[in-house]
Amino acid sequence: MADPLSEQAGPSGQNSESRQKSAILGKLILLISLASIVMAECIAASFFLPSTEETAALAGVSSDASAARANAIMDELAAMDEEIKNQTEVDLGEFTVTAFQPLSNTTMRIDFHLYATTRKEEVEAFEAAWRENQHRLRDQVIVTVRSSELGDLTDAGLGLIKRRILEKTNRTLGKPYLRSVIFSDFSFIEQ
Question: Where does residue 130 rank: exposed (0-12), middle (13-18), buried (19+ CB within 10 A)?
């Protein structure tokens, strides 16, 4: 006599397998459908994107003008590189600045070594002007640093302070000898 449980297990096991296959097949069909829709959208979008020539025409620039602009940029970069090679560093001295902050009741101590760059052909003229105005220039640097806000002193590049020192020193010297200012060994302590 046949076992009724074994007869029921056979067809339901096959039914479960066919359900799994149809579920996987359904997911595969859905995935293929989505992929084909995305591909169709990409192909359609490529028809609407302008070519390089059309982009240049829309921008009002011909390929010759683009080449001319690229050459001008390359020439400008070469000139900047030549300008940098034509500069030398000069030592402006070591500074220790102490500034009291009455609002926060703290004292700041700022130590740094200051350098600047100048053109090689102007080094002798700069050094003569530096010797004549050294104390006024040091005073300008100290006043600039002491009047700086906490945010200026914590700026990683010290950009605003550098620009102020550069402007004030060149104005005091009467001629723009200095091209850039460089901080070395910068330390800032708030007590």
Answer: buried
Sign of CA dihedral 9, 13, 14, 18: positive
Whole-angstrom Cα distance, residue 71 to residue 65? Answer: 10
What one-letter code names the amino acid at 2?
A
- In angstroms, the first-to-last Cα distance of the chain is 98
* Helix H or strand E segment including 189: strand 178-190
| Nearest of 170, 92, 177, 186 to residue 135 by alpha carbon | 92
Query: 51-91 pLDDT, tens per residue?
Result: 777 776 666 655 666 677 878 888 787 777 777 788 899 99
Q: How many CA atoms lie within 13 A of 132 on its CB side?
A: 10
Could you give the angle at the alpha carbon of 98 between the alpha carbons of 96 and 104, nearest 5°? 150
CB 167 within 8 A of CB 140: no
| Rounded-to-integer distance, Cα 17 and Cα 23, Å | 10
Residue 26 identity (one-letter amino acid): G
Helix (H) or strand (E) holding 52: helix 52-59
166-178: per-residue pLDDT in tens?
999 999 999 999 9
Q: How many CA atoms lie within 13 A of 188 on its CB side?
A: 16
Residues of the chain with pLDDT below 50 are 1-9
Cα–Cα distance measured from residue 186 to residue 191, given in angstroms and rounded to the nearest whole number: 17
